[in-house]
Design a protein that fits this description.
- The protein is α/β, with parallel strands linked by helices.
- The protein is 35% helix and 26% strand.
- The protein has a 9-stranded mixed sheet with strand order 4-1-2-9-8-3-7-6-5, with helices on both faces.
- β1 and β2 form a beta hairpin.
- The longest helix has 17 residues.
- The chain binds adenosine-5'-diphosphate.
Length: 248
């Protein structure tokens, strides 16, 4: 297995004007190529902090993060960060523009993604003309444009109703797998985590440590919505639920 990322003894303290909050006590996990990992845990335990640190938006207070040489991480921003005054194509090209990578080849890759994943006829439309699901696909394509190896997803479908979110989970999963990417997602939704992931990391309440790690035996060619129908789904759900329940 090709190890892309190792997080060792990650520790994070936030300093505010009159106090100090330890968000992460001691977080350890590894990520292998083509993993789809979900991180779950009680609200406020530090899940988003892990993604902020991995994407260099926040400094760590201790520990080590090692990424395999030459591999890139990108954070998928929520669909509500699409700029309303830029077309879908212009939104998807934004990251390339900002990083000076807007070559013909990269633009063609974005056009290929938009075409392959059902947005070709919307490229000159504005985000307001798209459904919630299409906006999510657009946000994902914008992130893929810079050709990252590891994608960080934060509550990717939290703003959507139940049925839409099941469909979008399938879409996002399908795109990530077809494009051969590795993903780390944080979510409070146990069902979403189980249905999409081959590994679920359960965090304790703050200050967080890794309380448990589950390897889920799904066929990676099947979609998350199909995993929800399997008998193992409720077994995994009950195990993770009881881990979280003990912490309340
Ligand atoms: P989660 O994603 O699990 O809900 P977060 O990573 O957002 O948790 O936050 C973990 C803890 O750190 C929370 O108690 C939160 O209030 C605190 N925290 C997050 N960001 C900051 C910040 N910039 N300054 C101070 N405290 C913060």
């Amino acid at each position: 297995m090709n190890k892309l990322l190792e997080v060792s003894h990650l520790h994070k303290k936030y300093h505010t004007l009159n106090n100090e909050i330890t968000a992460l006590e001691d977080i350890n996990f590894s990520v292998y190529e083509n993993d789809f990992i979900s991180i779950v845990g009680p609200s406020g335990c530090g899940k988003s902090t892990i993604l902020s640190i991995l994407s260099d938006l926040t400094d760590k207070s201790g520990g080590d993060i090692s990424i395999k040489k030459g591999y890139q991480i990108a954070y998928m921003l929520q669909d509500n960060s699409l700029l309303p005054f830029r077309t879908i194509l212009e939104n998807c090209l934004l990251g390339l523009e900002l990083t000076g990578q807007l070559t013909e080849e990269n633009k063609n890759y974005v056009l290929y993604l938009l075409k392959t994943y059902g947005l070709e006829s919307f490229i000159h439309q504005y985000p307001n003309n798209l459904s919630g699901g299409m906006k999510q696909r657009c946000a994902l394509i914008r992130t893929l444009a810079v050709k990252p190896d590891i994608l960080l997803l934060d509550e990717a479908t939290s703003a959507l109703d139940y049925q839409s979110s099941i469909k979008i989970n399938d879409d996002i999963y399908n795109i990530i797998k077809k494009e051969g990417k590795t993903a780390i997602m944080v979510t409070h939704d146990i069902s979403q985590a189980i249905s999409m992931s081959n590994r679920v990391i359960v965090l304790s309440k703050r200050p967080a440590v890794v309380k448990n790690e589950y390897i889920l035996e799904w066929d990676c060619n099947e979609l998350p919505s199909m995993n929800r129908e399997k008998s193992n789904f409720s077994k995994y759900y009950n195990q993770i639920w009881s881990d979280l329940d003990e912490q309340i």
